[in-house]
Specification:
Elements lengths: L20 E3 L2 E3 L2 H11 L3 H25 L5 H10 L22 H11 L4 H8 L8 H7 L13 H10 L2 E2 L5 E2 L2 H8 L4 H14 L5 H7 L2 E2 L1
Parallel strand pairs: 4-5
Antiparallel strand pairs: 1-2, 3-4
Helix pairs in contact: 2-3, 2-7, 3-5, 3-7, 4-5, 8-9
Bound molecules: fe (ii) ion.
Length: 223
């Protein structure tokens, strides 16, 4: 299997897992199958471009970290998790194509629902519902009154941790931006010391990605 995204194009990213692969008895969809799922649920081309491009960037960041760290983990699973993790965002668009930012925190659970309805295994569904911020606990949900089922939504496997971590280095805000490790570290502290510590742990575990090639390829600013 060949992996790695061609980042020379923004929207029509050349995807390189052309056939489904089997991981421990579970079929992981190919890049084209994942792209087709994005097309199926994206309400507009603009939404597709925003969300799918972000997912491919997160994938490129995760794969760079895998290549640099030499970690033994399931690369195909990380790739699929990155490409699928934000698919639930599409369910937050209204009929006029506006994104409901007030319910944004629920996009992970909505993505989990989409993938479950599509018959994808729980292992893949979890990448959606377990990547938000540095993870959400039952207590976070209760204390902050978040519109989520009261449960711990915490990355558990190394693959889930990497998808969650890589996601922090790019934001779909308008316009989209890359986020440095120091910028994210400064901003996550407002969510609590436990979140800041978690990011610090992941940072020392996976390292800091070199965002310069992606900044240059996509033309998004680096904060
Ligand atoms: Fe994301």
């Amino acid at each position: 299997m060949t992996t790695g995204l061609d980042v020379t194009t923004t929207h029509e990213v050349l995807l390189k897992v052309s056939v489904p692969v089997t991981v421990e008895g579970m079929i992981v969809p190919s890049d084209e199958e994942i792209r087709a799922l994005h097309h199926k649920y994206a309400p507009t081309r603009k939404a597709f471009d925003l969300v799918f491009t972000h997912c491919t960037i997160v994938c490129a960041i995760a794969e760079q970290l895998i290549d640099r760290s030499g970690f033994t983990l399931d690369r195909a699973l990380v790739r699929a998790g990155c490409l699928l993790h934000d698919i639930g965002v599409y369910r937050l668009y209204d009929r006029s194509g506006r994104l409901d930012h007030t319910r944004y925190v629920s996009h992970g659970v909505l993505g989990h629902q989409i993938l479950a309805e599509e018959g994808l295994p729980e292992t893949l569904c979890r990448f959606c519902s377990h990547h938000t911020g540095m993870g959400l606990t039952r207590k976070d949900i209760r204390d902050q009154g978040l519109p989520l089922p009261e449960a711990d939504h915490l990355a558990e496997t190394v693959e889930e941790e990497l998808v969650m971590y890589a996601d922090k280095f790019h934001s779909k805000r308008t316009p989209p931006v890359f986020v440095s490790a120091d910028t994210y570290a400064a901003s996550v502290a407002r969510f609590g010391e436990d979140k800041a510590i978690r990011f610090k742990e992941l940072r020392s575990c996976f390292g800091v990605p070199d965002l310069a090639p992606l900044v240059s390829a996509h033309g998004h600013a680096l904060l």
